[in-house]
Amino acid sequence: MQDNLTWWRGGVIYQIYPRSFMDSNGDGIGDLAGITAKLDHVASLNVDGIWLSPFFTSPMLDFGYDVSDYRDVDPMFGTLEDFKALLAKAHARGLKVMIDQVISHSSDRHPWFQESRADRANPRADWYVWADPRPDGTPPNNWLSIFGGPAWTFDSRRRQYYLHNFLTSQPDLNFHNPEVRQAQLDNMRFWLELGVDGFRLDTVNFYFHDAELRDNPPVPQGEAKTLGAPDANPYTWQRHVHDISRPENLAFLRDLRALMDEFPGTTTVGEIGDDNPLARMAEYTAGGDKLHMAYTFDLLNAPHSPAYIRKVIERFQRLAGDAWPCWATSNHDVERSATRWGRGEDPVAYPKVMLAMLFSLRGSVCLYQGEELGLPEAEVPFERIQDPYGKVLWPEFKGRDGCRTPMPWRQAPQGGFSSVEPWLPVEERHLPLAVENQQADPDSPLAATRTLLAFRAAHPALVDGDLTLVDVGEELLGFVRESDRERVLCLFNLGGKTLSTTLPHSGTPLQGHGFVSALDGDTLTLPPYQAAFLALDH
């Protein structure tokens, strides 16, 4: 683990979804005290910090991503004192703490929106995005909500439509108003002064909209759709040039960076769902005056062949300059990687080599809770679906509940997560993969995660070295990581058959990562789902 002002650069951040991590009070819902009780598990993984999905006061229609008070803890999760206790215990274990910030929109129950919707003349009348109907009463333009239907809802009080990129209960704040921008910076300052180490910024490219409210054009036939939504969603049929990723956003990101710079050692990671995500990532993280890092959906989508991963790396390097990425293969919004990428593969071996690849990329890493256990996507019956996104697009898209089910701690009723039936059902297939079962198994995904992250920390080139792709054939993935102290050749067999390749460089096999390979002269043979790391002459 790193402990310096740039800990985040090459750092590994463990994402916790609070509702589903650990229930300490027997109500079936995870909470802050539950997270605090399980921090030793997190620290044992050799990660650098944690990112907590929202725990703020909220009506929970989008499970905390609809905030009604930016400066308090929802009673469901505990109290502000519980958060301070979590912060202190995490710091005592060498873990940084990052928290979600959902500042592009609020809940419709936030006092700001209650005031804004009252009439057109109140002090916060312009704090949200309001627009008159067209002459025929229809919405002002063709923008769509990611959660289905128009991005506009009519409000009878003002006789205007308000913008919402997500649920109708999540009105978009008007970032063209400087008072709004300052209010959200002040909210973030509150948490920085409490001692948090950084922010994960939800939908960071959604803050501004086109002030002229121009229609989005359709995606030209044959061109790639956005990765930010499932293919069954009409949202993907538009080219999102006017509703998101507006140029005005860059000035706000500089203001945010100025705030972060007042608190040395803090960091930001932005979530980018965009038609051109890698270009946006480069734009938002280059120059050292905006975001510290950002992640996209390029590795959170279905394609995962070595050729595809190579193309993602190539595209980012072509665009990046001095930009810094944060890579993730799972999170609370997408199907778990062990299923999404691992269908038809060995359920134990595949997650291990996939994590080896993820931990070796140039950039920082987000590791989602349960990914260290190789958990597959849970099957949640329709009658137990909680996610509003899933209810709208069922059955083609079943929502995000399958990756949000409770963490299995023991092979026991409710997985040791709770003493009662939890808010989402515990997946039966997860129970044999529980933390307690994997603790004693040296061949488990949990053991592999700990070993790989210790190996990464021991090799500076894997933390923040440069990356150069090498040609090792179509079926293997290979690259060199190089720092001023070492060069490491990294090779991955992500499939189920033995593969051999002629090495582009001669090197000495490194040990301590848990994988096996055979080197005969300049020919390396990798059995199924294995990786190799070789020290090269510097």
From TrEMBL:
InterPro entries xref list: GH, GH13_cat_dom, Glyco_hydro_b, O16G_dom_2
Gene3D superfamilies in the record: Glycosidases, Golgi alpha-mannosidase II, Oligo-1,6-glucosidase, Domain 2
Limits of the Glycosyl hydrolase family 13 catalytic domain: 15-404
A Pfam family this chain is assigned to: Alpha-amylase
SUPFAM superfamilies in the cross-refs: (Trans)glycosidases, Glycosyl hydrolase domain
Family of this protein: Belongs to the glycosyl hydrolase 13 family.
Protein name: Alpha-glucosidase family protein
Taxonomy of the source species: Bacteria, Pseudomonadati, Pseudomonadota, Gammaproteobacteria, Oceanospirillales
